[in-house]
Every structure is written in C-alpha cells, then in structure tokens.
Design brief:
With 295 residues, the protein is mostly helical. It contains eleven helices and no strands.
C-alpha cells in the first residue's frame, strides 16, 4: 500500500498550461529552477493539505508573481501578456453579461480576435532581444510607451474637453513621431524607428484600454452613472443604457488599442525613420549632437 500512496502523491501536478506558460516566459535557467521548486512544494505540502482546486489557485498565484518579477526584457513580455489577457477577459465578460450574436458583426469579431492574437505573438516572440540593438529598441519602446500612455490617460481624465485637453491630445498624436525619430536616430536605421513606434503604441494603447474599461465599469456599477448617451427613440431601459454605455466605451478602447496604438505608432515611426535616416552619415552625426546618450 505504501508504494501505491507514494506513486499517487508523486502524480500530483499543477495545471500543465500554467507550467508551460511559466517556462516559456522565463529564461531557460530560471525556468528550470523556479518551475522545479514550485512543483516540489505543490506536491509535498500544498496539494495534500489544501486539495486540488486551492492548490491549483496557489500555483497560479505563485507562477504569476514569478512572471511579473522576471528580469528585463522578460518583464516587458510578462506585463504585455498580463495586460492582453486581462483586456481579452474583460471583452469576454462583457459579451457574456450582455450577449451579442456573432452574426451581427462577424468582421469586427474576427478583426478583434486577429488583433489580440497578433499582439500576443509579438509579445511572446519579439521581446527576446538577440542583439544589443534589439535590447535598445525594447527599452526605448517601453519608456516612450509609458510616457505616451500617461499622456492619453491625462487627456481622457480632463473630459469634457478643455483647451488643456486638446493640447494633451495634440501632444499624444505628435509623440509617436518623436518616438520613431528617437529610435531611428539612435540606431541609424529606419526600421528601428518603426519598431520603437510600434512598441510605444502597443504599450500606450493597452494602458488606455484598461483605464477606459475600468472607468466605465466603475462609473456604471459603483457610482450608478448611466453614461454619456442620451436616450432617444426608442427609449432605453436602464439595462439597455448600461449595455450601450459599456459597449460604446469598449469599442472606443479597442479603436485606441489597435489604431491609435500599434498602427499609428508604426506608421509614425516609419515616417520619422524616413526623414531622419535618408543618409546614414548624417544620421550618425545627428546621434552625436541631438540626443543625450543616457536617455
């Protein structure tokens, strides 16, 4: 009987998808040590004492903490994947709470899924720098993305619009061109301007999406505000007004995530890269005199 009990305990294993995700995000060295330690604790003490579901939740919490604390550049990937997962879950929750038929807007639904899949792909496979140039691009994209996202959030927080709001919006549209110029000038390559612009757009777009989603749910269900829409003909019921308000805000957030985010950032980076990298020698001279090397 004893060998049979030991074999049963050794067969305990946390969710395999979570373990695979943890290993794919961490470096091979860290993944082997971290995953092995978590599985050992899971089998020896957590699972026998707490049962399957509580033990699985414990493992998920521990794995999420390890992924978020991972060293740069892995940390960028972890934050992006966490943000994209949260954004997608918000959309799924909204669709379940206010059911919609996929046949109503099939192209929009396919576009949203394709957009999230592409963002997840680049977050997993394009955040692994193989050269110092790649590392520089990711660092610049992260810094500019945080600045751009903060600028957009500040603009949205001053709504209804004031002159200061429009000034912030203008600066937010102009900043991706500066991001692309910075990447192109620092490396002397137009494509790096595109890459810096794209990463800054993706990060800022994700920040704005999560902010707008949190704001609309907080205002609707905590503050009890019906939203900005004015009931017309036919009149909305309270539930219908909530649905319209939530989907209108999430629709605008999706536009910001995909169009004002990655698409605008990449286009602005390409334009800036073409302007500043038309001549490699002139670009090298600009790198020496235009931007501080510590930025």
């Amino acid at each position: 009987m004893a060998p049979e009990i030991d074999r049963s305990e050794n067969s305990f294993h946390p969710p395999r998808w979570a373990d695979a995700l943890l290993r794919s995000i961490l470096t091979p060295e860290d993944a082997e040590v971290t995953s092995g330690d978590l599985i050992e604790v899971y089998r020896d003490s957590i699972r026998p004492l707490r049962g399957r579901w509580q033990a699985d939740l414990w493992y998920l919490r521990q794995a999420a903490g390890c992924m978020l604390r991972a060293k740069t550049p892995m940390n960028l990937r972890n934050w992006l994947l966490s943000g994209l997962t949260l954004a997608f879950l918000i959309l799924v929750f909204s669709a379940l709470m206010y059911p919609i038929s996929p046949s109503e807007h099939p192209k929009v639904l396919v576009g949203i899924i394709a957009g999230f899949l592409y963002y997840a792909y680049v977050a997993v496979w394009r955040t692994r720098p193989s050269t110092p140039e790649d590392d520089l691009v990711l660092r610049l994209g992260g810094k500019w993305g945080l600045a751009l996202g903060t600028l957009w959030i500040a603009a949205y927080s001053l709504w209804p619009p004031t002159p200061v709001t429009w000034l912030l919006v203008f600066a937010a549209f102009a900043l991706p061109f500066i991001c692309g110029a910075h990447g192109a000038i620092r490396t002397g390559k137009m494509r790096n301007g595109v890459r810096v612009g794209f990463w800054s757009g993706l990060i800022s777009g994700l920040m704005v999406f999560l902010m707008r989603a949190a704001l609309v749910y907080f205002s609707t269900f905590v503050l009890g505000l019906p939203g900005d829409e004015i009931p017309r003909t036919p009149l909305y019921t309270a539930a219908e007004l909530q649905r319209v308000n939530i989907f209108d805000s999430l629709g605008n957030a999706l536009v910001h995530l995909f169009l004002f985010g990655g698409a605008l950032g990449a286009i602005a980076g390409m334009v800036s890269g073409l302007v500043f990298c038309y001549d490699e020698q002139a670009s090298a001279q600009r790198r020496k005199r235009c931007l501080p090397h510590w930025f």
